[in-house]
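Hey, quick one: can you model this chain's 3D structure?
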Amino acid sequence: MSCHSPIDGSRIAVIAACGPEDVEEAVAVARRAFESGIWRNLPPSERKLRLMAFAEEIESRSEELSRLETLDMGKPIRNVRAVDLPETVKTFRYYAEALDKIYDEIGSSPADAVSMIVREPLGVVAAITPWNYPLMLAAWKIAPALAAGNSVILKPAEQASLTALWLGELAALAGIPDGVFGVLPGDGEVVGKALCLHDDVDGVAFTGSTTVGKQVMGYAGQSNLKRVALECGGKSPQIIFADCLDLDAAAEAAAWGFLYDQGQNCTAGSRLLVEETISEDFLAQVASIVAGIAPGNPLDEDTVFGAIVDAEQMNTILDYVDAGEQEGAVTVSRGGRALAETGGYYLEPTVFGGVDPSMTIAREEIFGPVLSTFTFRNFDEAMKLANDSAYGLAAGVWTRDIDKAHRAVRTVRAGTVWLNCWDESDITTPFGGFKQSGIGRDRSLHAFDKYTELKTVWLALGSPA
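Sure thing. Here's the predicted structure for all 465 residues.
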């Protein structure tokens, strides 16, 4: 399987494209490791030390991994160095520290019995991860799953697998036993599907599109009814009320909310909802910010807006831009292909105004630098627009009115709601969505719920002598 860099289209590596027989072998190895107890039966303090060592191995190679992530996926290296790599290391350290501090429970039982609620690892877990944050989102799944005592098989996206392969080597160096963690690169329709259908895989943790997430659920039902956790698509609204305390900050957030990572972000603020009385001036301010942002070479430290992951995704985004124009949206600024002479996949951003909720660009996840703008006249209309989506991953509310802010938080159906900010969070807070944005949560201690089973133990006490 050839890996091409979106920076210039050149081939940068050839890696294995695993098939069904590789899946069979990987699952069998993971099952043997789990049943042997070589990992799950280690004292929590020992598992902690090895996961800490895993974090240290990653951190010691931060520069090599940052360059490889940028070459493979096309995001600006400054972002990888500042966000993706540090957050990956923090994630492993967080779950390493947490695993020996989670206690089982003693139930409220009658005097002649003792009830215990104990948490046990799920078994063999398949982690299927996307290409937009190859290392960080893999860590969100691998770290808690390993901390809980599971065997884990990582299936990275075929568009960006190179840093995931390094994780396999670094895990071994950190002392993770053979068979406890493995990496299976390959096509999603082959490797991902086979893992989801496998009767000896106990759980699948998936991040990707809602369409594929629905397929994952179907495969689980066709096989052994395995545990499924999904973090799927988003169509996140930023809601700007006229009483916003800092419209300059809101405009900056509105622009970068759909531009960060070239818009290839599940929480991208791709729907901008602006109160009618300020809409014209506010949209002009956002458009001015966007006009100052141009794509550049992701390996350049000064680049803030990089490449689209591949030609297929680039063309999909351009098709959405065409659909927006054909369906009557107002083109505030139209982005086309840029830097074509490099052989890479670069796009300029597109901003639409006058978008109707029925338009394709308003309803489907584009996963690219395209903004759809709507106006509203009052609070109820804003909430109706915000919730008029199949998705519910994130939302932003900008207002100085504390009552309005709290009413909005209670009304908007989304897994994360930011007040007077955008994309602020850390590993201690759960991440996931409502509606068709998914099931279950990554990050925080709540992530352990996906990778463990609860067992009730009831001990009947004998009569006192």
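One thing worth noting: The chain has a mean pLDDT of 97.
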